[in-house]
Design goal:
2 copies of one chain form a homodimer. The first copy, chain A, is α/β, with parallel strands linked by helices. Helices cover about 40% and strands about 15% of the residues of chain A. Chains A, B: Keywords: Decarboxylase, Lyase, NAD.
Chain lengths: ~325, ~325
């Protein structure tokens, strides 16, 4: 019923794209890419976890408009017809969403619904940024999109995990019952320039601790693994999914796994110096292991991550240092 | 922080209790019980799945007030201070929530939040009706409250299951971060008088098919099991939980399991006649097996179900016949 093509960024015609969370880490990289490709971008953010500096990068660009608004209370856009509404607004790191649990729940529910309604009204595509957190503490490894997850609905992380599961459910409901042309990605750990120094996730912690000359904080014994995707790989996957007519969730992440201690070694290699390590207790409900099965992305999008960890760390350190 | 007692219905002082979904099956039995105990009740319903006849039962009662409203868009109550806000509004049977997927998602998110905000403003207790559906198609049997469930976030039932998981998450968020005195129950299959004939769940299907002299519809081979709780047992459990200071979810259900074919036999015994059976295919995502572990309710509430299946079926048939 809904499989009428939405114009994609892969076509030559310039598009009008509204991005919620445009001042966030991933949002700001999308803005950059779409502007570079010749599209018009309307960024929306309330700066609950986004950074003003990420808006300042584009202010004055003739094809960039910014609206400061909390999308959970409505998206005050009254301009020309949109081609895409891309919902990337949400606190996304544990210290942020645990500081704002109700706001995090709301941007997953009301925020997603406001985006869906806007897309519906404009006949635009709707693109949801979901997360590997919907898999919770998985019993299946690696996680394919068909795995239903293992999430504690009442745990301290549930304000984020359940909000994203709800966001997926309402996106599918609008797709099935109201014909909105939707996309869903489940983003696995991603890193790169312009992450908040207080983001709280392991790569930013390590990079900023290293830059300050502090010991690197390792939770537990450091044997837990994570996969790390460089931001440019994610943005490429997003662009390809916009061009594909595929409505089920797609994992976007780098399946190569590293233990926390291997990550310490990679940082040591890039910086060419030894680091001291401080061990702390694992937080409550901390997922032990998460790794994407990217069969769907490979098959549907012909996409695989291109940037290796040390290359990405090097790029991140260079670009963040250049922006200081 | 939040463990200041809320007055309970077990105390002698009359309370003011607002019930969303008051025209629904469970809601209407709560209204009846609280009015009988001397409390004042404000019922709220928009009749998306509730029945006007369930409001008519109490119209004219000096302590009953009714507000017709969709609680997803706000609860327009401006009366005296409430002691309890009890959120029982939601389509709850698969044919209803699949007909209204977006409304079902909204009453779980915005509806729950509006109830929490109202409770917070009044310093009232907030009581959430959650469901055994949060366990999805469980891998653990029977299901204790600590089991995290196995729910398909993008399946056709997810509009209900994920809405309820979200409702639990936001209830815990308001409890933890805003000090609201909350309760959560997970209701397992419940039956009794005043269910909608088109409810779609197995006991109403069987009872109404039997009353019309039609064959009983059994999905699959009829070997899948369900547990069935009589409404009066559920209402007693709810009343006891209001009096307890316990904020984690509590299963309320009857752990005695019956296969669909045993349920057919029970109906035959109560009606003292043989039934013909028509087999149909199992619907997509239909949970194969669900049974409550009621250790918490036994321990915290000193509660166990008292009414056996044949007794309950007999009561249901008598009372529904009397209401015709």
């Amino acid at each position: 019923m809904t499989d009428t093509p939405v114009p994609s960024t892969a076509t030559s015609a310039p598009l009008r794209i509204l991005i919620t969370g445009s001042a966030g880490f991933v949002g700001s990289h999308l803005v950059e890419r779409f502007l570079n490709e010749g599209h018009s971008v309307i960024g929306v953010d309330n700066y609950i976890s986004g950074q003003v500096s990420n808006t300042d990068l584009f202010v004055g660009h003739p094809r960039f408009t910014f609206i400061e608004a909390d999308v959970s209370h409505g998206i005050p856009y009254e301009g020309e017809t949109l081609d895409w509404v891309m919902h990337f607004a949400s606190p996304a790191s544990p210290p942020h969403y645990q500081q704002f649990p109700v706001e995090t729940l709301m941007v997953g529910a009301q925020g997603t619904q406001n985006g869906l309604e806007l897309a519906h009204a404009h006949g635009a595509g709707f693109f949801l940024a979901s997360t590997s957190e919907v898999y919770g503490d998985p019993h299946v490894h690696p996680q394919p999109e068909t795995y239903w997850g293992n999430v504690n609905p009442i745990g301290v992380r549930s304000c984020y995990d359940e909000a994203k599961r709800y966001a997926e459910a309402i996106t599918m409901a609008y797709h099935r019952s109201r014909g909105v042309n939707t996309r869903i990605i489940r983003i696995f750990n991603t890193y790169g320039p312009r992450m908040r120094p207080d983001d709280g996730r392991v790569i930013t912690n390590f990079v900023h601790q290293a830059m300050r000359g502090e010991p690197l904080t390792v939770y537990g014994d450091g044997s837990q693994t994570r996969s790390f995707q460089y931001i440019d790989d994610l943005v490429e996957g997003i662009s390809r999914l916009m061009a594909a007519l595929y409505h089920e969730p797609v994992n976007l992440g780098n399946p190569v796994e590293f233990t926390m201690l291997e990550l310490v070694e990679a940082i040591e290699d890039v910086l060419v110096r030894r680091m001291s390590v401080e061990h702390r207790e694992l937080p409550q409900d901390d997922p032990k292991q998460r790794q994407p099965d990217i069969t769907v992305a490979k098959c549907v999008l012909k996409w695989t991550p291109q940037i290796e960890l040390k290359t990405g760390l090097d790029l991140m350190l260079q670009r963040d240092a250049a922006n200081r």
